[in-house]
Amino acid sequence: MLTGVSFQLSPGQGLVLRGANGLGKTTLLRTIAGLQPALSGRIEGAGERAGYASHADGIKPALTVAETLRFWADLYRTDLPDDVFELFDLADLRDRPAGTLSAGQGRRLGLARLAVIGREVLLLDEPTVSLDAFSVKRFATFLREHHLARGGIAVIATHIDLGLDLPELELEPHRAAPEAQGGSDEAFL
Amino acid sequence: MKALLGRDLRLAVRAGGGFGLGLAFFLMVVVLVPFGVGPEAAILARIAPGMLWVAALLAALLSLDRIFALDHEDGSLPLLATAPLPMEMLALAKALAHWITTGLPLVIAAPVLGVLSDKFGRKAVLLPGLASSAVLSLLVVSTGDSILLAFVLAGLGLGTFALHQIMQAAVLDVVGRGTEATAVGLIFGINGLIGAASPFLVTLIINHAGGLSSIFYYSGILTAISAVVVVFIPLRPSREVKPNSG
Hints:
A: globular; B: 246 residues; mainly alpha; 2 domains
């Protein structure tokens, strides 16, 4: 459980969340995304503008790469950008069933979803897990040039350096009082 | 919502996702119960509705948790929940897709065809049913993996589940009094025989004729043959119907 966390981001700004495992980075991101309520405090401006990416990519093995992205575009009522396949190095994998992708390729497909759904506030939970160095660089480029440069906002929980030169927020461990724990109605945990 | 419905239908058709399992289970119960109870038509007729309901319930239970469990496991659920789609619509779309793939074929098939066969005579229902099943089998090959495939498969399910009962009724119409049990036994005997032989035949066909699609040619041809047979054998119309309508 986290307390006393406060930050404010303007369009074009990013923030990196740092902190040890189990500290509450994921909880914080999920709370901002509206997937679970905050025990106290306020979150403003995210809501319908937020796009959340957890460490699970939500990929269906039976759908092809192109179908997966087409589905997300349809669901979020956006147009599928033409350059998204090139952007995430998926052009050759377009018609491959997602179930046959490697872990890194699957991750790239999961991240490509972010370029499709057209959300301004991206909440990224360990986005670079299982990506190779080249793909990490590519993803950082996407964030800088296609998202932040266009007035997007990104909150990223990560343990590695993305090379984006973003401000960092070091989260401090907090020992919760026993009576403050439990009794939450978190969704999908 | 259309996007989610389309995705779930597509997934059900392609990966099974428990969808085939439920139907297979249902069919197995329908086939096995007469073996267990014994082939007396009177007893079977009495317990059939109850058995069908129980089997349908269990078949539904088999696949019910998969509506959301799969999306939960692979992390799709939070991603869907943050989409610009109200949660109610999300649940509705998923439930609808589930029902279309598991419930709809049975719901449409059984009562409609049953009533039709009592009304117009068995042949009038069996023949178009078998013929369209044959055509649908062949269509499976050419529809590729579009949404249309879901409907083609639903139509095939209609043939598989409902026509079977009517065929049995037709046989019971034809055979004399006192030999019904033998007739039902024969039907299941032949069923078992063909069921056992089919996998081997299919493997042979796949290996030599090439491609998975040949399975559907095989089942299409078998169904077409049975349709032709139905044309030529005299099936007595149901008792309620005037003789000239058969």
